[in-house]
Amino acid sequence: MNILLLGSGGREHAFAWKLVQSPLCDTLLVAPGNAGTAQVATNVPVSATDFPAIADLIRSRNIDLLIVGPEEPLVKGVVDYIHQQPDLSNLPIVGPDAEGAQLEGSKDFSKQFMARHGIPTAASQTFTADTLTDGLTYLDSHSLPVVLKADGLAAGKGVIIAETVAEAKQTLTDMLSNGRFGSAGSKVVIEQFLRGIELSVFVLSDGVNYKILPEAKDYKRIGEGDTGPNTGGMGAVSPVVFATKSFLEKVEEKVVKPTLTGLQQDGIQYRGFIFIGLMKVNGEPYVIEYNARMGDPETEVVLPRIQTDFAELMLAAGRGELDTISLQVSPQTAVTTVVVSGGYPDAYETDKIISDLERLEDVTAFHAGTKAQDGQVLTNGGRVLALTAQANSLENAVRKSQEAARRVQFEGKQYRKDIGLDLIRYSD
């Protein structure tokens, strides 16, 4: 099989790393890729949102399977574009069409979807610039803290938890009147704050059949103890100690099955990943958000635990044949620590030389924001590396991942030193 993978982050390096382990994978192209994907596959300088160039690449390289990593091309309709080409209409693609991707592309769409199909989630209302006054009045009587979400894609940073009414009103005004988050904030969902503990469940669907992949917990804030602004993710752990068998059974019955049934009832053939962000509240699952792709950095702990041939799994999803696959998962624990550029998630510098990667032992270094230049690996983004360790215990996996984060070097490096520690101490 010749496979084309779209994207350039740590998620895509993890996908590439896993795909090339399969005897089914003859050629793997990554567009545009990074310094890590270049080590295991062939990078091609094509943007993940340049749909005509992607179609040409599929034709010229005889691609048999397309896998879409990030959300932006999905929301913009890459699947629709490719399948509208007469000669590519039957190409297996892992990733939903633009309508299915609205589960992530519009918070308002996803909240209406959940309400329509009886999926447990926080109470909410949506406001626009035209209804800003109504929104401000609504906040006067809202319980605190209150969650404000930009409706559109905001690179994982469009969620604000306001502790006071004044802060909530200022945030709503900044989004709707002052252009904070740009067009992504042209609608704002105001949502009830749920008190509980958060985790993510990942589902792979072929439109009818599904597989529930290993769950994960990520760490979104920049500072230890979950302090400071949100980021794209500072680390992740899988499995999750509080995701008991009985809880995951509730997730399947109350969330996964109604979601997939709802998509079918709405006429959406959803072939791809559904990332379900959940809050466990008094033992019950509530959906915080959907994403239309795998998470990053959660992918870097989920994929290492999957023992089933990954290329075979992807092809079955793209062809609508997931019922023919048995999913095997390692019982080991995987922990990833994300090493980021100084200043992230605000302004940061790039082009810093990364050293000591060759000194890393018993970990997999998934490249996120990197590039290769003149024989060296340089930083090329906010999140630079996801350092994943596997072990028979959470404590050992944490230790190995953190040791790798200490070893690797570049100017301005920062990382959280508490990834997974809350789960070591966790008691229900």
Plain-language structure description:
- The protein is α+β, with helices and mostly antiparallel strands.
- It has four domains: 2-88, Rossmann fold (3-Layer(aba) Sandwich), CATH 3.40.50.20; 123-192, Dna Ligase, domain 1 (2-Layer Sandwich), CATH 3.30.1490; 194-331, D-amino Acid Aminotransferase, Chain A, domain 1, CATH 3.30.470; 334-420, Glycinamide Ribonucleotide Synthetase, Chain A, domain 4, CATH 3.90.600.10.
- The chain has 14 helices and 22 strands.
- A five-stranded parallel beta sheet has the order 3-2-1-4-5.
- Helix 6 (98-105) crosses helix 7 (107-116) and helix 8 runs antiparallel to helix 9.
- The longest helix is centred in the middle third of the chain and has 21 residues, at 245-265.
- The relative contact order is 0.14.
- The model has no long low-confidence stretch (mean pLDDT 96).
- One of its GO terms (biological process) is 'de novo' IMP biosynthetic process.
- It catalyses: 5-phospho-beta-D-ribosylamine + glycine + ATP = N(1)-(5-phospho-beta-D-ribosyl)glycinamide + ADP + phosphate + H(+).
- This is Phosphoribosylamine--glycine ligase.
- Pathway: Purine metabolism; IMP biosynthesis via de novo pathway; N(1)-(5-phospho-D-ribosyl)glycinamide from 5-phospho-alpha-D-ribose 1-diphosphate: step 2/2.
- Pfam families: GARS_A (PF01071), GARS_C (PF02843), GARS_N (PF02844).
